[in-house]
Structures are given as structure tokens and as C-alpha cells.
UniProtKB/TrEMBL annotation:
This is ABC transporter ATP-binding protein/permease. It is a multi-pass membrane protein. InterPro entries: AAA+_ATPase, ABC1_TM_dom, ABC1_TM_sf, ABC_transporter-like_ATP-bd, ABC_transporter-like_CS, ABC_transporter_sub-D, P-loop_NTPase. SUPFAM superfamilies: ABC transporter transmembrane region (SSF90123), P-loop containing nucleoside triphosphate hydrolases (SSF52540). GO terms for molecular function: ATP binding. The keyword Cell cycle does not apply. The chain crosses the membrane at residues 12-36, 57-82, 102-123, 179-199, 215-234. Keywords: ATP-binding, Membrane, Nucleotide-binding, Transmembrane, Transmembrane helix, Transport. The lineage of its organism: Bacteria, Bacillati, Actinomycetota, Actinomycetes, Mycobacteriales. SMART domains: AAA. It is found in: Cell membrane. Residues 392-594 form the ABC transporter domain.
Length: 596
């Protein structure tokens, strides 16, 4: 029985004690899971950084608060359960003053309950949002800093869809960690608290001539443990199915994105038919897997629903005879039903969370994959060019493909400020790869590279145009503010005068501008950022020879001291360069002086 006169103080003491024990047990279980299970280790690898006190105690403090409110919620449930007993007993006794007293008590309980629920929600969301922000920043940073965003193609098993892992999985990881862990805490605390209540309420039961003391308690445990074991067995394949579901869905989405990105090329090829076939077959794979999930869920949910329905009448069946024999009150029966429900639901938590847990494991595996790839990409040997002097010097440089085919062997040369080198050779001979190596992006190279100190700028045939305004596109990758006059002047110089009034227009410029205009935009970028070395990889292939002439001349006039390395096939380029490096295949090369 509960003394409603001292309930506040009793509840504070109860919550404090339960909280202390919960914290100790929670930390111990967490440590054991992390130490002894594979998924625990994978989880910790992702989760640990947010709770590291060196990154601030905010994470730990929020988690401690969430845990406190979880414990308090169980206390509230216990109070409601006693209220049920006393309230129904008052009704059975036709005790009107007691009836009204318990109505008043209920009003207080309900108010506290509502406030507790709202505060719990707020704290839970605050934890989620802060953790998510931290994790997102960490993954984006790792992905970019290790160079994984472009080097992942070189690692042993490249991952699919890193974008989805960062955007969707981070949110799922954070929310599911909180919901599942606090669900487990609630379940265990409720099992302990309500088993005590059931123990006091239950009597012996005779089954097949044997008397079972405290039957209610044993029956609920046997019932739920057996059903949980069966549910785990039925639900097991869901882990793999849910992993596949995410993977296939992301692959389908990526295929759709590609059609959008390359829409014009596909339309020129009249490739709709092929694309449609490809898209539908990817979607069919999603649906096939989804049917597997549906049939598995039918078994899983069918079993869970049956188990839950049976549990509704279970306590009445057992306690009914004792009520009619006058051994217990109506309040006792109602509290039994309530406590049985609590123990049953809590024990069932582990069974019913199985599919959430399955999805959670898949999320954890995917995020670990992202970290693994980033680590492997970061560990790839990269020839880091030293950027000290004023010239580009290559000494004994050898470059190959990932499969070991030589592209350039033992190349030594020097390009001094104001000089320009033209790289030529058949398609696939390694021209772009040589530029990649000099930029420090290619892992399969050895030798020495010295490049001029200061910025370098690389322009490919399709210069990258970021999302945003034209101003962002011209100044990329520098966000420093240039005044409008300077921007207008460089646009005029590269024959983009018709765009000067649209500097602040937001557009997908990569689609709006023609390839030739995008190449000129690239030159505008060079003029603004004034790099010490410029790499031009067929950077004028989409403009006519007259414009090419204009762009190279403007570049030379504006940056007379810059080192220029170009790749290109046109003979008209010769007049802007001092030497030609000819890549002849199988690593062979030759250097010829040009007469300007
Ligand atoms: N990420 C990669 N993985 C494996 N092989 C690659 C990769 N990138 C380039 N290669 C190979 O390296 C070789 C050189 O490629 P590269 O792009 O440097 O040639 P290129 O001379 O610039 O050709 P093009 O004139 O056609 O642009 C090619 O055989 C290409 O298939």
C-alpha cells in the first residue's frame, strides 16, 4: 500500500535511489556491450566522440538528464498503478469521500505526468539535435579532410552512397540510440518495480495438481520469455533485409539523380528507353526485397499481435477466482491487470524492438563503412608536393595506374615563373593523371615534386561550377569578397560581359551556361585568384580558336609570372607555350622546345 500523505518525499527518495542504481548498471552494461560485442564496438566508434568530456560536458549532462526523466517516468507509472487500486477499491466500497479524494489526487498526478512528458520530449530532442550536429560535422569533416570524397574509388571496397550515410543515417543513429536505450532502461526498471507489486498481489495457483506460489509472477515471466525467444527467431532475417532495403533504395535514387544530371546528353542519345529499363530494374530490386520484408513482417507482427491480445485477459483469468472468493478487492484485480500489463509490455519491449534494432544495426554498419573508407583513403600513399620556391620542378617522377601500368617513368623537368609547359599525348596516355599527381591527388606515384608556393588552380574541360550565385561561381573556391567592379572587369575580359548584371542571380549555372561559357568562367576565376601555378586540362577545348587566343593572352598579360601547365591537342596552343612534354605510352616521354 502507498501512503498518499508522504508520497512526494517518498517519490523523491525512490527516484534518487533508482537513479543512482540505474546509472551504475547502465554504464556497466554499456561497457560490457562495447567490450564484448561487435555491434557495440561499432556503435562506440561512432558515438564516443560526442560524450568525450574533452569536447565539453554538454553531451554527458544531457544524457544524464534524459536518464533521470526516464527513471522518473517509471515512478509515475508506479504511482498510477497504486492510484488504480485505491480508486477502484473506493468504488467497490461505495466510499464517496475517498472517491473524490482520489479524483483530486489524479488531477495532480495527471498534471505532473503531462509536464514530465513535455520536458522529456524537449530534453530528448535537444540531445538528438546537438548530437546530430556534432556527428554530421565530424563525418563531413572526415570525409573531406581525408580526401575520401575523391579517393574512395581507390580503396579496396569502395562504399556506396556516402551522401545518404551522412544525411539519413546520422539522424537515425542518434534518435534510435536514444529511443532504444531509454526504452530498455524503462523496461528493466518497470520489470523490477512492477514485479514487486505483482508479487504482493498474486496468490498460489494449482496447475495439474501442483501448487505454484505467486503464480502470476512466474506465469508472466515464462509467457514473455518463451514468446520473446520465438519472436527473435522469426525476426532474425529482418536485419539483412533492412540493410538491403536501404542499399537498394539509395542505388535507385542515385540512378534517378544521374538521369537528372545528364538529362541533356540522354535526350540527345534518345536514351530514354535504356534509362527506363535501368531505372525499372533497379526499382524492381527494391520491390522484390520489400516483398520479402512484407512476408517476414506478416509472420513477425502476426505473432506479436496474438501474443499481445492473449495478454489482455491473462491477469483476469488468474485473479478472477480469488476476487469472487473474497480474497482480494476489485482494486487489487485492477492493479494486477495494470502491473501485469507493465511487466508484460516491458518484457515484450525487447521482442518488439527487434526490427528497430535490426535497422539500427544496419545504420551502424553503414556509418562504420564510411569511417573505414575515410581511414583507408587517408592512409593511401600520396606524393605530397613541396610548395616552397617559385618554380615547378619534377625530379625522377614516375606515375602509374592503380593496376601498375606505367604512364610516366623517371620524368625530370623544371618550369620557371613566366614559362608555360604543354603536355600532349594520345588519349589515355596519362596527361590528366600527371596533372593530378602534381596537384597531390594521385596515390600511385613516386619521385620529387616542387611547386611554386602560393595558390594553384586547376581547370578541367568541364570546370566545376558550384551551386549558388554567379558571384559564388566566379570566386570559387575563395569566399573572400571582391568588389563588383573587379568581378565585372574580369567577366568582360573573358568575353562574359553579358553576365555582369546577373552576379547575384541564383541558378544551377552548370546547366545554364554553355560548356564554352563555363570554360571562360574558369578563366575569370584564375584572373581573380591570381594563382602562382595554373593547370589547364583542355580548358579551352569548347571555345573557338579566336577565343582561345584571347583567353591565353589575357591570362599571360594578367599573370606574367605564373607557371602554366596545359594539356591540349590543338597546334594553335603551341604559340603560348615554351616547351612540349609528349607522353608516348608505357611511361616513355620526350621534351621539345617550342619557338614562340
Ligand atoms: N581512377 C582511376 N582508376 C583506374 N584507372 C584510372 C583512373 N583514372 C585514370 N585511370 C587510367 O589511367 C590512364 C590515364 O588516364 P588519363 O585520364 O590520365 O589519360 P589522358 O591522357 O588524360 O586521356 P584523355 O586525353 O583521353 O583525357 C587511363 O588508362 C585511365 O583508364
Amino acid at each position: 500500500m502507498l501512503d498518499w500523505g508522504t508520497v512526494v518525499l517518498d517519490s523523491v527518495i525512490w527516484t534518487a535511489k533508482a537513479y543512482a542504481i540505474t546509472v551504475v548498471v547502465f554504464v556497466a552494461v554499456l561497457a560490457a556491450v562495447v567490450r564484448f560485442t561487435r555491434w557495440g564496438r561499432q556503435w562506440w566508434r561512432i558515438a564516443a566522440s560526442y560524450f568525450d568530456p574533452r569536447n565539453g560536458v554538454g553531451g554527458l549532462a544531457l544524457a544524464a538528464l534524459v536518464l533521470l526523466f526516464t527513471v522518473f517516468a517509471v515512478r509515475m507509472n508506479v504511482l498510477f498503478s497504486y492510484w488504480y487500486n485505491d480508486f477502484y477499491t473506493a468504488i467497490q466500497n461505495l466510499d464517496e469521500p475517498a472517491f473524490w479524494r482520489f479524483m483530486r489526487i489524479f488531477a495532480v498526478l495527471a498534471t505532473v505526468h503531462v509536464l514530465r512528458a513535455l520536458i522529456t520530449y524537449l530534453i530528448g530532442q535537444t540531445l538528438d539535435i546537438r548530437w546530430r550536429t556534432h556527428l554530421n560535422a565530424r563525418l563531413v569533416d572526415t570525409w573531406l579532410r581525408t580526401g575520401s570524397f575523391y579517393k574512395d574509388r581507390f580503396v579496396e571496397s569502395p562504399i556506396d552512397n556516402p551522401d545518404q550515410r551522412i544525411q539519413v543515417d546520422v539522424t537515425d543513429f542518434v534518435t534510435t540510440t536514444r529511443v532504444l536505450s531509454m526504452g530498455a532502461v524503462t523496461a528493466v526498471l518497470s520489470i523490477v518495480s512492477f514485479t514487486g507489486i505483482l508479487w504482493d498481489l498474486s496468490g498460489p495457483l494449482t496447475v495439474f495438481g501442483t501448487e505454484i506460489p505467486r503464480a502470476m509472477v512466474f506465469l508472466v515471466f515464462v509467457y514473455v520469455l518463451v514468446t520473446t525467444a520465438v519472436a527473435f527467431w522469426i525476426g532474425r532475417p529482418l536485419i539483412q533485409l533492412s540493410f538491403l532495403n536501404e542499399k537498394l533504395g539509395a542505388t535507385y535514387r542515385y540512378a534517378l539523380v544521374r538521369v537528372r544530371e545528364y538529362g541533356e546528353s540522354i535526350a540527345f542519345y534518345r536514351g530514354e528507353g535504356v534509362e527506363r529499363g535501368g531505372l525499372l530494374s533497379k526499382f524492381a530490386a527494391v520491390i522484390r526485397n520489400w516483398w520479402h520484408i512484407v512476408f517476414r513482417m506478416l509472420k513477425f507482427d502476426g505473432f506479436n499481435l496474438t501474443v499481445n491480445q492473449t495478454a489482455v485477459i491473462f491477469p483476469f483469468l488468474v485473479q478472477g477466482p480469488r476476487l469472487f472468493a473474497g480474497q482480494i478487492t476489485l482494486g487489487d484485480v485492477m492493479q494486477t491487470s495494470n502491473a501485469f500489463g507493465q511487466v508484460h509490455d516491458s518484457l515484450s519491449f525487447f521482442r518488439e524492438s527487434y526490427d528497430d534494432f535490426a535497422a539500427f544495426r544496419a545504420t551502424t554498419i553503414r556509418l562504420n563503412g564510411l569511417l573505414d573508407t575515410s581511414r583507408q583513403a587517408g592512409e593511401l600513399p600520396t606524393l605530397v608536393p613541396s610548395a616552397q620556391g617559385d618554380r615547378l620542378s619534377l625530379s625522377g617522377l614516375s606515375v602509374g595506374t592503380p593496376s601498375g601500368k606505367p604512364l610516366v617513368t623517371d620524368l625530370s623537368l623544371s618550369v620557371t615563373p613566366g614559362q608555360a609547359l604543354l603536355v600532349r599525348g594520345p588519349s589515355g596516355s596519362g596527361k590528366t593523371t600527371l596533372l593530378r599527381t602534381i596537384a597531390g591527388l594521385w596515390p600511385y606515384a613516386r619521385g620529387g615534386i616542387d611547386r611554386p608556393a602560393g595558390d594553384g588552380l586547376f581547370l578541367s574541360q568541364n570546370p566545376y561550377t558550384p551551386l549558388g550565385t554567379l558571384r559564388d561561381a566566379v570566386t570559387y573556391p575563395h569566399t573572400s569578397v571582391h568588389d563588383d567592379d573587379a568581378l565585372r572587369q574580369v567577366l568582360e575580359k573573358v568575353a562574359l560581359g553579358h553576365l555582369v548584371d546577373r552576379l547575384d542571380a541564383e541558378s544551377d549555372w552548370a546547366r545554364t551556361l554553355s560548356p564554352g561559357e563555363q570554360q571562360r568562367l574558369g578563366f575569370a576565376r584564375i584572373l581573380l585568384s591570381e594563382p602562382a601555378i595554373v593547370f589547364l586540362d583542355e580548358a579551352t577545348a569548347a571555345v573557338d580558336e579566336g577565343l582561345e587566343n584571347l583567353l591565353y593572352r589575357t591570362l599571360r598579360t594578367a599573370l606574367p609570372e605564373a607557371v602554366i601547365v596545359s594539356v591540349g591537342h590543338r597546334s594553335t596552343l603551341d604559340s603560348f607555350h615554351d616547351r612540349v612534354l609528349e607522353l608516348q605510352g608505357d611511361g616513355r616521354w620526350a621534351i621539345t622546345e617550342l619557338v614562340r
